[in-house]
């Protein structure tokens, strides 16, 4: 790709970007949120039309014209996009094959058999005839990958495929990638996990603010440098965080702010007890689908509560709807940003004030001037990258959307903040910012629940971990016990 | 440099949603101006009751477009919150009108005097059509039936219900004061329907300003899940938009029956739902819900009336009129379609760039 | 024996059920017919009539018409009546098919459209059902029905136009408001006027269909007023439309009625319209007699008695009323 | 029965809705046979439902297709009226042939399809507005072509119109003791062929599946490599084409041209599709369901007219009430399944 330009109204997403991918290499595309990685990929696959620039492909002497994903597929480029882009109303098998096979007729038998073969080879727990919408997020992601790999492709593009996968599945994916590499397939890999980059990649291209920073061999670019290249500045050491964390001293005479007893919801979570103290950061950990999200959703009243009580400062409060929880000072950042978080077409400003507005009530609208003030405040505080406060939130990059949502909840000045996977799909710099923010908030007296798939992160921020398995709370770790091994063994059920 | 600036502002105007209906309106007016300037003549005369009244095509547009404008308000809200449209408004207007006559006549189809004050009759009608709205709202919000289908029920039954309310009689009100709502109030030379529409618009503006209805409906329309997690109650908000539309419908019912002091169940407010939806769309609002611009919808309503009046003026056969209307509508929406506009802006940019080059 | 090929092609589950249903139906057909015969005998020899009418809330005329039919075809008078209402021709045709299957003895029909009836009536004849048309004629062979008791819309038009001619106005600038195009009433009433316009050099300021709709009529007349064109006659093919037109006139302070600027003509003789005549606000109202029920009854009685119907087409007796001569008695006896 | 209950959760939305429709239709029809007797026991009643609704079936097939793709087309009623008027004028005033009339019908359908499809698919204009304009245009054009309704007397046409497909063995005795054969019109045959074709199209072809994909999630379908624009275009094209064919079948059934033909047919088509389990939001639907949807809707109407309600308003109210009941049941079942 040469000299690619792309701009959206108000944003120059890509400026003069060059990118080269060789046969049989795994090439990482790195950059902070909103750097333009996804945009570059979408230009390459014809989802967006480029403003200028050319794309060259081996075996074609002229620049190739790619106007639609279909063209890209025909040229042997197969892609897994950042947000899962499958059709929820079709069956798993259809999702794997639609749009990429030749011919007029649809042979269900053959297709299902083929799909079952792929599912089996990738160990995906789904049936070919199942409706896709009934699969979990991770399974859908694996299906998308399965589809992309099965294509007889020369170029494979993976845009943050690992953000909703657990470690075992990531390993599977890596093995797959190495196999393909051996077959001479060029792979573009986008992720925010530095470990993963160093595990599989050969080369790294770094983007910043829509501009090319450079292309590097993996050996020549140590982690610290990569990060500074991405951010354009040196990153403070992560050890900072740890030292800050130690400021929290758990004293037993501290009564819990919030307490739940025998809580359960119709989403299928078993009865559980829970408490959190003032200024404490705790976390839920467990494998994918172990019910971490369901726990916090129950506390927030997001699912229908079927039993149990919640106490605030020792007094029982009735929480059946989110608004009850909000009025009691609870804030909840959901894990599925696109579905549960953002209100796509509304401006950043409206998205920031939404929760506060709802709490204030129907007859007390926040004035426009006030709304701008709030918006500007949080855009600055969280350094949100947006053209203006009036930009629709859906045109922000994923990471920046997440920050807007955090801003939304901070604006309500909650006593208890629940963050469900706040760092998913977020670049290293921001991740650390968020972790720091969490600790800062905690030190100011806010209670925080922090959920993340990355154990490192949890260890860094949390002072107490609740371990879950099969939608049950199976253990609680704190203090000395907070080590990687201990967590793993508790999750695996080794202890009990 | 100066060129750049103008270009930028031109672009901005193009991008503004409200530009579409205003441009359409201007085009229609210019068309009329060229073909026959008498279109703009407004005269002050006296009606048969000796009251001063304004008349002329423009006044006719304001007068007859009022019902549509009032409906457009409610329809915009319903569209925004539910991503669907209410096709029962015509039938519900028949119900409202029937209720008004029923209360006024008290069961006797040709009373000497009105049996109840008009305001009472109107309030009962408001209640009735709010009930109809609530019925639609429950089906849509609670049972999650798609709006167009849910409202198909009242669309089918509405006119029958209207007939049933008055036991199939066609009551006639001979009292002068009842005709004020569809005509002129003594001493005021502006058609009352327009005044009523104005009142509705003012109320809407106030509601928009002093409540968060706008934000809530948009949020619910765009993303129901996240609205819910932000403490909103999507079911209630969808429901309430239908009830609000119900109020608008009752007002329309009043104007309609007042215009002719009687009712005809099968033709009163016939096909008005399609025009109301068209008004919302001509205002550049997405019929799939989400963001809306109320002003644009209201202007859209008057655009439609302007078009109808223009066509009548040129003596187009009234049953062939839809064909011409269709052509104009298609031209309007095509020229405001994003892809077409993008193309226009591009060529426009090309032209100006070329000009700049030539000059420089 | 499963004649419905659609079912066998459709789904597996549906197939079995369909087959058994149809088979069952075929088996029971014979016994059922016998049962049906028993039925009619046991219910005291009521004559089964299926009445297809237009929607009664279409207009005052229709309401009166429907009411009179309901009053006539009751069990006391020896009838068992089923009603079907629609303003749509195809729904009416479907209703007719249904009545055939229900085994009515007589089909009474007031068709929405003049066209499209011949093949259905053929079916009706095949089934041994007799047809009597009321109110509106249709475009079909005379042999297909027993009798037709209708208003002569053309004559109504002629009466009205003759009256208009007799007024001896200096010039005739007419706004012509038509009913739904193609309905018998519209065709008849427009025909007479068109003829006169052609022969007498009258001027049609505008000729539009307002589809029996007062509101539309109001808009059309409003548009003419706004254009400033001169007119002195409003020929509205129904009272409703005349009312709408008058509303527009009132707004613009154009006087109307006896001795005033504009002559207002309507049809149907609604009571309220005749009152307008009495108050000299309108000038003329043509009658359209909705009370065909007694005539129909007579025809049926004749046929049942084995007699021959003397006249196939019975034209309703109808008048036209002039505002200068109308009396309260007229209003009471002819108003509907 | 038990098996279906057991697998309720595994059924796709499409199949579940289809099942409800079929069950409700049979329950309703059998109930009518038991309680109303009268005509419902005669097979011809059923065939009359088919005869009267052949065009609606065809039009609804097209409508379902568009709805599955996530669009809507409310111009179909207008197109049907325009087709019958144009064919009538052509046959009677220009002494045309039936074959020519068929061509006219197809051409009108194609014309509407191409224009509407282009506007919706390639210019991204909302389908509701496009087809609303289409409806206005078709209705207006119909009266421009010819204002007054009239019967077609063209002999060739009348022969075609009176052609009946006799169904042996299901006839009944009439009042006069004469045996009358049960029959369907050729329109019904056309309709059944189209139902089968559409079923195959949607089920067994790539194109058919891409309609579902586009309706399910347009953005995703695009990224899965489906030509979304073309798919949408084809769906609208086919829908209007069906309106054209349906128009001719309608014309064949009534044998006349009139501006008031097929008034409100679009609503009936939409209602039938919905009753048959097609979702207005796209991605879910089934042609067999649509077929039964049409039958259910007209059976409801037939039942209402058979019950012999004495006041005109009951007709509208009862039909609406039954529609309401149906929709609520559907919605409750779907909601329970989701749980
Ligand atoms: N459809 C769009 N409309 C307007 N602006 C957009 C659109 N898509 C992306 N952008 C803008 O382009 C820029 C690059 O976004 P992109 O999604 O490529 O970032 P990214 O590098 O993939 O970030 P992330 O790691 O968060 O996914 C962002 O500033 C974003 O706001
Ligand atoms: N074994 C399973 N089979 C099928 N579905 C499951 C299984 N486990 C969990 N799920 C579903 O997956 C969803 C995941 O639950 P939840 O989001 O609470 O888990 P989590 O621990 O937060 O996982 P994640 O890492 O995906 O956020 C639940 O809605 C549940 O219905
Ligand atoms: Mg990205
Ligand atoms: Mg989770």
Automatic annotation (TrEMBL), chain A:
Keywords: ATP-binding, Cell membrane, Membrane, Nucleotide-binding, Repeat, Translocase, Transport. It holds the Pfam family ABC_tran. It comes from the Bacteria. It comes from Roseburia zhanii. One of its GO terms (molecular function) is ATP binding. This is Sugar ABC transporter ATP-binding protein. One of its GO terms (cellular component) is plasma membrane. Residues 1-234, 241-495 form the ABC transporter domain. InterPro entries: AAA+_ATPase (IPR003593), ABC_carbohydrate_import_ATPase (IPR050107), ABC_transporter-like_ATP-bd (IPR003439), ABC_transporter-like_CS (IPR017871), P-loop_NTPase (IPR027417). PROSITE patterns: ABC_TRANSPORTER_1, ABC_TRANSPORTER_2. It is found in: Cell membrane. The keyword Transport applies. It is a peripheral membrane protein. The keyword Secreted does not apply.
TrEMBL record, chain B:
Its main location: membrane. It is found in: Cell membrane. The chain crosses the membrane at residues 18-35, 87-105, 117-142, 178-207, 235-255, 324-344. One of its GO terms (molecular function) is transmembrane transporter activity. GO terms for cellular component: plasma membrane. It is a multi-pass membrane protein. Keywords: Cell membrane, Membrane, Transmembrane, Transmembrane helix. This is ABC transporter permease. The lineage of its organism: Bacteria, Bacillati, Bacillota, Clostridia, Lachnospirales.
UniProtKB/TrEMBL annotation, chain D:
Keywords: Cell membrane, Membrane, Transmembrane, Transmembrane helix. Signal peptide: none annotated. InterPro entries: ABC_transp_permease (IPR001851). It is a multi-pass membrane protein. One of its GO terms (cellular component) is plasma membrane. The chain crosses the membrane at residues 16-36, 48-68, 74-91, 98-119, 125-145, 182-204, 233-253, 274-300, 312-335. Its main location: membrane. It is found in: Cell membrane. One of its GO terms (molecular function) is transmembrane transporter activity. This is Sugar ABC transporter permease YjfF. It comes from Roseburia zhanii.
């Amino acid at each position: 790709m040469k000299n690619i330009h792309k701009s959206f109204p108000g944003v120059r997403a890509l400026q003069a970007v060059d990118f080269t991918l060789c046969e049989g290499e795994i090439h990482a595309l790195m950059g902070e949120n909103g750097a333009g990685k996804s945009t570059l990929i979408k230009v390459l696959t014809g989802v967006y039309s480029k403003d200028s620039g050319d794309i060259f492909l081996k075996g074609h002497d002229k620049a190739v014209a790619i106007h639609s994903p279909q063209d890209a597929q025909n040229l042997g480029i197969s892609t897994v996009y950042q947000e899962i882009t499958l059709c929820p109303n079709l069956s798993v098998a259809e999702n794997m094959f639609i749009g990429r096979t030749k011919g007029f007729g649809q042979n269900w038998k053959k297709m299902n058999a083929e799909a079952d073969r792929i599912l089996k080879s990738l160990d995906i727990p789904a049936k070919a005839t199942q409706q896709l919408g009934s699969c979990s997020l991770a399974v859908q992601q694996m299906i998308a990958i399965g589809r992309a790999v099965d294509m007889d492709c020369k170029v494979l593009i993976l845009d943050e495929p690992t953000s909703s996968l657990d470690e075992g599945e990531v390993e599977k994916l890596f093995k797959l990638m190495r196999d393909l590499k051996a077959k001479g397939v060029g792979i573009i890999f986008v992720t925010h996990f530095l470990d993963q980059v160093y595990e599989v990649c050969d080369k790294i291209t770094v983007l910043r603010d829509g501009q090319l920073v450079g292309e590097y061999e993996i050996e020549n670019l140590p982690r610290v440098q990569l990060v500074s290249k991405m951010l354009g500045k040196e990153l403070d050491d992560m050890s900072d965080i740890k030292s800050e964390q130690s400021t929290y001293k758990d004293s037993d005479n501290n009564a819990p702010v919030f307490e739940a007893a025998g809580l359960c919801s119709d989403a299928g979570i078993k009865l559980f007890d829970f408490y959190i103290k003032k200024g404490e950061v705790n976390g839920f950990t467990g494998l994918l689908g172990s019910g971490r999200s369901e726990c916090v959703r129950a506390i927030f009243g997001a699912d229908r509560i079927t039993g149990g009580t919640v106490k605030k400062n020792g007094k029982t409060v009735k929480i059946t709807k989110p608004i009850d929880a909000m009025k009691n000072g609870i804030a909840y950042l959901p894990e599925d940003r696109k579905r549960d978080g953002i209100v796509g077409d509304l401006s950043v400003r409206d998205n920031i004030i939404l929760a506060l507005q709802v709490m204030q009530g129907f007859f007390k609208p926040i004035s426009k001037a006030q709304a701008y003030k709030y918006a500007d405040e949080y855009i600055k505080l969280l350094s949100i990258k947006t053209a203006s406060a009036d930009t629709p939130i859906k045109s922000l990059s994923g990471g920046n959307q997440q920050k807007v949502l955090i801003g939304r909840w901070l604006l309500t000045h909650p006593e208890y903040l629940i963050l469900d996977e706040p760092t998913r799909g977020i670049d290293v710099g921001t991740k650390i910012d968020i972790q720091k923010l969490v600790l800062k908030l905690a030190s100011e007296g806010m209670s925080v629940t922090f959920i993340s798939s990355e154990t490192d992160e949890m260890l860094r921020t949390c002072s107490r971990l609740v371990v879950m398995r099969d939608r049950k709370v199976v253990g609680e770790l704190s203090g000395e016990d907070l080590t990687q091994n201990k967590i793993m063994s508790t999750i695996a059920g080794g202890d009990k | 440099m100066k060129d750049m600036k103008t270009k930028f502002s031109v672009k901005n105007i193009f991008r503004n949603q409200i530009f579409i209906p205003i441009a359409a309106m201007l085009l229609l007016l210019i068309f009329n101006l060229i073909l026959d300037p008498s279109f703009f003549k407004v005269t002050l005369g006296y009606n048969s009751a000796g009251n001063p009244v304004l008349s002329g095509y423009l006044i006719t547009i304001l007068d007859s477009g009022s019902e549509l404008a009032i409906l457009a308000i409610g329809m915009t809200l319903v569209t925004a919150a539910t991503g669907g449209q209410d096709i029962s408004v015509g039938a519900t207007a028949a119900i409202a009108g029937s209720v008004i006559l029923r209360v006024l006549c008290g069961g006797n189809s040709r009373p000497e005097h009105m049996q109840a004050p008009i305001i009472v009759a109107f309030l009962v009608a408001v209640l009735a059509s709010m009930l109809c709205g609530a019925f639609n709202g429950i089906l849509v919000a609670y049972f999650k039936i798609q709006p167009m289908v849910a409202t198909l029920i009242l669309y089918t039954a509405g006119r029958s219900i209207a007939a049933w309310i008055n036991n199939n009689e066609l009551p006639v009100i001979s009292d002068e004061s009842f005709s004020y709502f569809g005509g002129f109030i003594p001493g005021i030379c502006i058609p009352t329907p327009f005044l009523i529409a104005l009142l509705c618009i003012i109320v809407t503006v106030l509601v928009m300003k002093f409540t968060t209805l706008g934000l809530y409906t948009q949020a619910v329309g765009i993303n129901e899940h996240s609205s819910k997690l932000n403490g909103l109650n999507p079911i209630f908000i969808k429901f309430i938009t239908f009830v609000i539309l119900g109020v608008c419908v009752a007002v329309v019912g009043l104007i309609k029956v007042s215009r002719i002091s009687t009712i005809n169940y099968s033709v009163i407010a016939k096909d008005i739902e399609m025009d109301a939806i068209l008004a919302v769309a001509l205002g550049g609002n997405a019929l799939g819900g989400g963001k809306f611009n109320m002003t644009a919808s209201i202007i859209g309503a008057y655009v439609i009336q302007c078009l109808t009046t223009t066509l009548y003026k040129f003596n187009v056969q009234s049953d062939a009129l839809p064909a011409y209307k269709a052509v104009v509508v298609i031209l309007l929406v095509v020229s405001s379609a994003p892809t077409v506009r993008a193309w226009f802006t591009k060529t426009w940019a090309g032209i100006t760039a070329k000009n700049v080059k030539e000059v420089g | 024996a499963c004649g419905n090929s659609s079912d066998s092609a459709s789904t597996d589950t549906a197939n079995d059920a369909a087959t058994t249903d149809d088979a069952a139906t075929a088996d029971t057909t014979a016994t059922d017919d016998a049962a049906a015969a028993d039925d009619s005998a046991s219910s005291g020899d009521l004559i089964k009539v299926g009445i297809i009418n237009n929607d009664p809330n279409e207009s005052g005329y229709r309401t009166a018409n429907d009411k009179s039919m309901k009053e006539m075809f009751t069990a006391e008078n020896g009838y068992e009546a089923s009603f079907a209402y629609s303003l749509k021709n195809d729904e009416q045709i479907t209703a007719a098919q249904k009545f055939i299957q229900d085994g009515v003895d007589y089909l009474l029909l007031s068709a929405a459209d003049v066209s499209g009836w011949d093949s259905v009536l053929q079916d009706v004849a095949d089934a041994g059902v007799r047809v009597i048309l009321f109110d509106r004629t249709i475009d079909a062979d005379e042999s297909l029905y027993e009798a037709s008791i209708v208003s002569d819309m053309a004559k109504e038009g002629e009466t009205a136009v003759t009256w208009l001619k007799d007024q001896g106005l200096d010039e005739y600038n007419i706004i012509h408001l038509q009913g739904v195009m193609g309905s018998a009433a519209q065709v008849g009433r427009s025909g007479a006027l068109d003829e006169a316009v052609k022969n007498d050099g009258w001027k049609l300021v505008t000729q539009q269909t307002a589809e029996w709709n007062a509101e539309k009529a109001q808009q059309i007349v409003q548009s003419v007023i706004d254009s400033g064109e001169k007119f002195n006659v409003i020929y509205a093919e129904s009272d409703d439309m005349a009312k709408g037109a008058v509303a527009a006139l009132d707004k613009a302070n154009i006087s109307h009625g006896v001795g005033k600027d504009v002559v207002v003509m309507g049809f149907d003789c609604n009571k309220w319209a005749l009152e307008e005549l009495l108050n000299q606000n309108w000038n003329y109202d043509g009658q359209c007699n909705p009370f065909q029920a007694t005539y129909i009854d007579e025809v049926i009685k004749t046929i049942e008695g084995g007699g021959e119907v003397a006249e196939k087409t019975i034209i309703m007796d109808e008048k036209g009323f002039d505002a200068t001569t109308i009396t309260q008695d007229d209003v009471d006896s002819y108003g509907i | 029965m038990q098996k279906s209950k057991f697998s309720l959760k595994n059924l796709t939305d499409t199949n579940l809705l289809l099942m409800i429709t079929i069950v409700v239709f049979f329950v309703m029809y059998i109930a009518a046979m038991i309680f109303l007797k009268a005509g419902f026991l005669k097979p011809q009643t059923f065939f009359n439902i088919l005869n009267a609704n052949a065009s609606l079936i065809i039009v609804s097939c097209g409508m379902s297709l568009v709805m599955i793709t996530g669009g809507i087309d409310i111009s179909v009623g207008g197109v049907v009226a325009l087709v019958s008027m144009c064919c009538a004028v052509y046959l009677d005033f220009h002494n045309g042939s039936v074959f020519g009339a068929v061509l006219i019908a197809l051409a009108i359908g194609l014309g509407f399809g191409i224009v509407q499809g282009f506007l919706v698919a390639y210019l991204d204009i909302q389908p509701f507005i496009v087809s609303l304009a289409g409806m206005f245009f078709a209705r207006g054009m119909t009266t421009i072509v010819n204002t007054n309704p009239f019967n077609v007397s063209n002999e060739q046409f009348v022969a075609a119109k009176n052609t009946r497909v006799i169904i042996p063995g299901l006839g009944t005795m009439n009042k006069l003791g004469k045996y009358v054969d049960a029959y369907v019109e050729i329109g019904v045959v056309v309709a059944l062929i189209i139902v089968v074709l559409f079923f195959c199209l949607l089920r067994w072809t790539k194109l058919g599946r891409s309609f579902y994909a586009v309706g399910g999630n347009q953005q995703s379908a695009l990224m899965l490599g489906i030509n979304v624009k073309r798919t949408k275009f084809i769906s609208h094209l086919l829908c209007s084409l069906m309106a054209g064919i349906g128009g001719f079948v309608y014309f064949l059934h009534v044998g006349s041209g009139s501006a008031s033909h097929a008034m409100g047919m679009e609503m009936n088509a939409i209602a039938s599709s919905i009753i048959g389990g097609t979702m207005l939001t796209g991605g879910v639907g089934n042609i067999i369901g649509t077929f039964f949807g049409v039958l259910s809707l007209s059976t409801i109407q037939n039942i209402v007219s058979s019950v012999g309600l004495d006041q005109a308003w009951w007709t509208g109210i009862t039909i609406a009430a039954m529609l309401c009941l149906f929709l609520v049941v559907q919605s409750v079942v779907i909601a329970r399944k989701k749980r």
